[in-house]
Specification:
There is one protein chain. This protein has about 90 residues and is an alpha+beta fold. Helices cover about 40% and strands about 35% of the residues. Strand 1 (about 10-20) and strand 2 (about 25-30) form a beta hairpin.
Length: about 90
């Protein structure tokens, strides 16, 4: 057993949805099973589409997200700020 790598079977199931408009990643969950997450996925996609999201990709996976909504533009700004502060 490798103690340095997490055991992915210990993670809950989540629906990860990436959209181009707006440029975001959303996590919905946790779910007890892959089947439960798969059954819920369509509803989340439909809700985001109704809210104006476009180019939607939805995946079901085992993970442990730290943040449930990630706005890509904000992430890029934070990376730029970190790089700028490290160079000073």
């Amino acid at each position: 057993m490798n103690l340095l790598q997490p055991n992915h079977s210990e993670f809950a199931w989540w629906v990860e949805i990436n959209t181009v408009v707006p440029r975001c990643t959303y996590y919905f969950g946790p779910f007890d099973s892959e089947k439960e997450a798969q059954l819920s996925r369509t509803g989340y996609v439909e809700d985001l589409y109704q809210e104006g999201a476009r180019d939607i990709i939805a995946l079901v996976k085992q993970c442990q997200p730290d943040v449930l909504t990630i706005f890509q533009e904000e992430a890029q700004v934070k990376i730029s700020e970190l790089m700028h502060s490290e160079s000073n």
